[in-house]
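Ticket #4471: structure output looks truncated?

Reporter: J.K.
Steps to reproduce: submitted the chain below (339 residues) through the standard prediction queue, then opened the result file.
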Amino acid sequence: MIVITGGGTGGHLSIAKSLCEAFNDENIRPLYIGSTYGQDREWFEGYPGFEKTLFLPTTGVVNQKGFGKIKALSKILRQAFTCKALFQQKGVKAVVSVGGYAAAPGAFGALMARIPLFIHEQNAVNGRLNGLLKPFAKAFFSSYDVNSPVKDYPVSKRFFRAYRQRDELKTLLFLGGSQGAKAINDLAFEITPWLHVKGIKIIHQCGNNDLERAKAHYKKLNIPVKLFAFTQNLDEILYESDVAIARAGAGSVWELCAAGVPALFIPYPHAASDHQYYNAKALMDEGLCTLMRQDALDPQKVKSWLEKIEISSISRALHQRIEPGSSKAIIKEVLRGSQ
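Returned output as attached by the reporter:
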C-alpha cells in the first residue's frame, strides 16, 4: 500500500489529487491522511480515488505561541505513533508527503516505521516541515530545485486539456486562490465598469468570505459576471479564460501555465518566506508573466497592462514551459524506491 499525506490548502491538495490520479492509472488506490482542519475533508472525504481517507486532529505549529505551540507539537507526536502503527498493520511500502501541517504525522510516522518517505515541495521556498525532513527523504521533488529527479510540477492532465491558443482578451478571470483574496476582489470591483465598457467578459472566484459583498457589488452595477466562491472544476474555468489576475500559490502558477493562460500575479504578502513572490518570479524572469506587489497595486497600471499584453505569444510559451506526465514520473520514482 502507498500513502499520500498532507494538505491544509488547495495547493497541497491539488498535488495530492494529481498524484492519486497517476497511481489510479497504475491500478493503485492509495490511502490518504490529512487533517480535520483546513480543506482536506472538503476535497477528499469519500473521494473514490483513495482506498481510504483518514483525517487527524492536527494543526500548524509555526503560527502558534507559547503553550499553543507545545500543544500542537504534542498532537502531532501522538498522531505520528498512530500513523506508525497503521503503516505497520497495513504493510505500507512508501509514504508521499505533499507538505503542509497535515503531512507531519504521516511523515514522522513513516520515519519512525522506517518506511521510505518521498516529499514534494510545491513552492520556490521550502516549507519548514519539508526543510526539516528533506535530509531523511528517499527523494525530494521540486520544480524549483535543480537536483530534483522530476522538475515539472505535478499538474493534473485536466489542466493541459484546458489549453487553447489565446489571441485576444475576451474573458478575464480574477482568481484569488481557494480561500479568496480581498485585494484581488477590490481590484475587480474597481475595474469591472471599465472591462464592461470594453466588452470583456468577467469570471470572478471571490472566496466564501467575500461572496455576499461581491454579489451585492455586481448587482448594484448591473453587470453580468460569472461569480463563485470556489470550484473543483477550475480546469473548465481556465478553458473559458483568456487572461487571469491571480494569487501566486504554486498550484495556481503551474495550472495557469499548463492551460496557457497569461497572468498578472499578485502574491499574498504574508505568505511564509514570501514564497508566492518567488513562485511567480521564476516565470517573470523568463518573460512569461507580470508580477505586482499588493501594496503597489494600481488599477490604472493594471488597465495599461491589459491593453498591452501580447496574449498570443505568451499563451503559447507558457504551455510549452511545462510538460505533462510529471505525476507519472514522480510515482515511478516512488514505486522504484519502495521496492
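Triage note (M.O.): checked the attachment and the full C-alpha cell line is present. The chain has a mean pLDDT of 92.
Status: closed, working as intended.
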